[in-house]
Amino acid sequence: MDQLAIVILNYNGQSYLERFLPSVLAHADGFPVYVADNASTDNSVALLRDRFPEVHLLQLTRNDGYAGGYNAALQQIKARFYILLNSDVEVTPGWIWPVLNLLEHTPRMAACQPKIRSYDRRSHFEYAGAAGGFIDWLGFAFCRGRLFDTLEEDYGQYDDDRPVFWATGACLFVRADVFHQTGGFDELFFAHMEEIDWCWRVQRLGYEVWTCGQSVVYHVGGGTLPKTNPQKTYLNYRNSLMMLYKNLPSDRLFDTLLLRLVVDGLSSARFLLTGQWRDIGAILRAHFAFYGRLRDLRLRRRQLPAQTEATHLPVYTCSIIWDYFAKGRKTFAALNWSAKSVRWPS
Fold first, then answer.
1. What gap in Å lies between CA 212 and CA 186, rounded to an integer?
2. Taking the mean position of all CA atoms in its chain, how far away is CA 194?
3. 171 in a domain, yes or no?
4. 121 lies in a domain?
5. Number of domain units in the chain
6. Lowest pLDDT segment from 3-12, 138-147, 222-231
7. Do β-strands 33-37 and 141-143 pair in parallel, antiparallel, or remain unpaired?
8. Euclidean distance between CA atoms 49 and 40, whole angstroms
9. What's the rounded Cα separation, in Å, for the pair 7 and 135?
10. What's in the keyword line of the UniProt record (predicted)?
């Protein structure tokens, strides 16, 4: 069994493999690199065979998204730790060791991420993960270094190592036994927010999720599905509702979901003002898709393990939307962190 395996999930990402796989191989530090191909229809597989024979190629028979693709791939890889790495990430010398050392010396740490900077604006954080993620009490995700579309410059303010609520799937170090113990990602999500759902579930078991400030990678972002694509809007809205329904404690479930439905409706006004009709349609589709999956979600909710008494989930008790848009708090440090993190018992 390997100590660590680097696993890249690919779907029609030939251009990204050509651009970024050389940096991964150059800085793999002797650890094996796998590419799990999600039934690509471009020339990704031929490229890997011809130009990167040192890469271990896993060919999956269909595209089951991020969640299903990684679940299938990691079943075939024996290692103590995995790095789940997007194909559009440029790694840096020594990027593995600070995170791996944290994992090895923190037994209750199930997952960890490095700092994620923007590939195109290299002094600034990137949208998908930045320096570690949180959610507010309505389930809206945000990061140290990124609130909505405001991306902070990285001047060392997040160079610490600390627990967070979620770590990004763009570059996610995970403890293999915990990943398999929890059944991996929920394949209902297909793509987007499945890592947040998984991080929530592992914390229910008493594990921790961290960010490591001493490791840096650069992420293009939106490589498979651009941020402006209505399909991304659909997945984000649908999956956020599914995540809340699965994981919220019973005494918070109805009120929180009702408020989310109202807020999601109001948020469509932003798309209305800019004429983004397809995004409005995506929000409507997301809600109906959520209702259509309630039977499956109820089953998953009943199967969740009881939350341990020692678990304190770092949930922001205020509204990130209100803080950002009404109070003008545009950075993580400006948020009202005097409101202490809360525990959500089951």
1. 25
2. 7
3. yes
4. yes
5. 1
6. 222-231
7. unpaired
8. 14
9. 27
10. Glycosyltransferase, Transferase
Mutual angle of helices 294-303 and 230-247, in 10-degree steps? 40
- Give the separation between CA 164 and CA 162, rounded to whole angstroms: 7
DSSP character string of 301-334: HHHSPPPPTT----BBSS-HHIIIIIS---SGGG
pLDDT above 90 (res 338): no
From the centroid of its chain, how far is CA 284?
24
The per-residue pLDDT for range 155-184, each reduced to its tens digit, is 999 999 999 999 999 999 999 999 999 999
* Domain assignment of residue 261, yes or no: no
Report the CATH number that the domain containing residue 65 is assigned in CATH.
3.90.550.10
CA angle 205/212/318 to nearest 5° reads 65
Beta strands in 75-207 (DSSP E): 79-85, 89-90, 109-118, 133-135, 141-143, 146-147, 150-151, 162-164, 171-175
285-311 pLDDT per residue, tens: 999 999 999 999 999 999 887 766 556
Per the document, the length of the chain is 346
**Long-range contacts of residues 22-26, Cβ cutoff 8 Å, at least 24 apart:** 23/90, 23/91, 24/85, 24/89, 24/91, 25/52, 25/54, 25/55
Q: Which domain holds residue 108?
A: 2-219
Kindly state whether residue 321 falls inside one of the protein's structural domains. no
Write out the two tokens for 145. 């270094």
